[in-house]
Automatic annotation (TrEMBL):
Residue span(s) of domain OmpR/PhoB-type: 124-222
The name this protein goes by in its record: Response regulator transcription factor
Taxonomic lineage of the native organism: Bacteria, Pseudomonadati, Pseudomonadota, Alphaproteobacteria, Hyphomicrobiales
Sequence ranges assigned to domain Response regulatory in this UniProt record: 2-116
Residue list for modification 4-aspartylphosphate: D51
Keyword RNA-binding: no
GO molecular function list: phosphorelay response regulator activity; transcription cis-regulatory region binding
Key words of the record: DNA-binding, Phosphoprotein
UniProt source species: Bradyrhizobium uaiense
GO process annotations (BP): regulation of DNA-templated transcription
Length: 223
């Protein structure tokens, strides 16, 4: 799962990125409407958290753009404005939820889980392949109904392949899933993550196969 934070506050923005990234997977942060539009043009996000008061305009302008996407991401609007009219306007524009500043981390994560739960009701939140099941919302991997621990980047790579079962997943797609815009990526990073992921799944007696496709990426399939 991928999260985008659109927030220009130099303290709050990185905090939001890290908090939501820890809860849901890879996360990116931008500080303007223009950067937000550029980000959603090149990557797909399941959750976008948008501040109202951005340097180049109201965050609701980006919200309107997001609601034209198919499928559109879950959205949460942040603002220091707590007037009922402002709240109603954000919801009328299509926001899934509205959080007034200041707020606690536990509140934001809970609200994000709630809007994502509604999103995944229509898309299928649990994917099953062989004896592996993956809960997209809670980011939990189970083998024969037993949870196993998978590190963050390996988990992002597994999710990208699980959600494209039976199709070749390009190496570039896996890089996007596992790394944020500002991360430096070593030339063999994806290969190393996939190798460790294979060993981890094999140790848990997982009955899926991750096959390399020369010059392209990887193909995940059940036995």
């Amino acid at each position: 799962m991928r999260v985008l934070v659109v927030e220009d506050d130099p303290q709050l923005g990185p905090w939001l990125r890290d908090t939501l990234g820890t809860a849901f997977g890879s996360s990116d942060m931008v500080t303007t409407l223009e950067e937000g539009r550029a980000a959603v043009a090149v990557r797909n996000f399941e959750l976008v958290v948008i501040d109202r008061g951005l340097p180049d305009g109201d965050g609701l302008a980006l919200l309107r753009d997001l609601k034209q996407q198919k499928p559109s991401p879950a959205t949460i609007v942040l603002t220091a404005l707590d007037d009922p009219i402002d709240i109603a306007r954000a919801l009328d524009e299509g926001a899934d939820d509205y959080v007034a500043k200041p707020f606690e981390p536990i509140e934001l994560v809970a609200r994000a889980k709630a809007v994502l739960r509604r999103l995944f009701l229509d898309r299928g939140a649990i994917v099953r392949i062989g004896n592996l099941s993956y809960d997209v919302l809670n980011r939990e991997v189970c083998i024969d109904h037993t949870p196993i621990v998978v590190p963050r980047r390996e988990l992002a790579i597994l999710e990208a392949m699980v959600r494209r079962i039976g199709r070749v997943v390009l190496r570039e797609t896996l890089e996007v899933a596992a790394y944020s815009f500002d991360d430096e990526i070593q030339s063999n990073a994806i290969e190393a993550h996939v190798s460790r992921l294979r060993r981890r799944l094999r140790a848990a007696n997982c009955k899926i196969v991750i096959k390399p496709v020369r010059g392209l990426g990887y193909l995940l399939s059940g036995e």
